[in-house]
Amino acid sequence: MKTRFISSIFIAIILFTAYAFMFTPVFDILVMVLAGAACYEVMKVAGVKSIPLRVVAILFSLALVLGVIYVSRVPVSLVAMAYVLGLVLLTVCSYPDIPFVDLAVTVYASFIIPLAFSTMSLVADMYKIFPGNIDRAETRLLLWNCVATALFTDVFAYLVGTKFGKHKMTPNLSPKKSWEGAIGGVVCVVLLNLGFLAVFHALTKESFFLPIWAYILMNIIVSILSMFGDLMASLIKRHYGAKDFSHLIPGHGGIMDRFDSVIMAAPAMYLFLMVYGLAVL
Fold first, then answer.
1. What's the pLDDT band for 276 if we cut at 50, 70, 90?
2. What is the DSSP secondary-structure string of 110-125?
3. Which residues pair with 178 in a beta bridge?
4. The pTM is what?
5. Radius of gyration of the chain (CA)
6. What whole-number distance in Å separates Cα of residue 88 and Cα of residue 84?
7. What is the pLDDT of residues 38-64, one digit of tens each?
8. Which of 6, 15, 12 is nearest to 33 (CA)?
């Protein structure tokens, strides 16, 4: 517990530093590092042995994040097409050293995960997408909501489930999760984020661009989908018989163990905001 507590403080320092540099390249670099580390961890747990495949996948995961964030400067579609062609050629030419299952794992680890992480930077740039309707202070709250929802939904679900959980939600993936805990986790996170909204109003003295019903709906959707990110990580670990993705964070596991929920939470928030913005703003 002491090790876990010290690691939690270290994680908090990194997150607050990233938050302080949210509108600078420092934040984008952090997102890129998270994506690259997660890619490495998934391929390691899945037992992908080909060093060239690992190296290419990790490098692409880093490049993809920057490509998505700075889309006007990097032809992401062309790079992605070249990457897919390269993966197929490498797999065919290296068979049986690179089986098809390794190719599938590589696509998930180096394409889906980095794309999901990169949406954190896209959420941070909402003030650029809808100028005059969303400002920097509001995007700070949005990103805070996103990360807090991803991290605390599981914490609240565990606390409520331990006390009141009776009905198993996913016994084949995560036997300790219950429907009571899941509902409690969502409710507690929504209340927590409403508290953040109240602090936002008190500090900025301005109204938030989302009406209260949309704000609550967004947090419910993000909270529910964040649990699927956690379950997806559990599915991978259970399939390959791993307890943790790595030991990078003592007491917590790896990047994927701590930030697996973000893989669903960030894209969910980004999609909600884009749909709402295009329809209403």
1. very high
2. IIIHHHHHHHHHHHHT
3. 168
4. 0.90
5. 19
6. 6
7. 999 999 999 999 999 999 999 999 989
8. 15
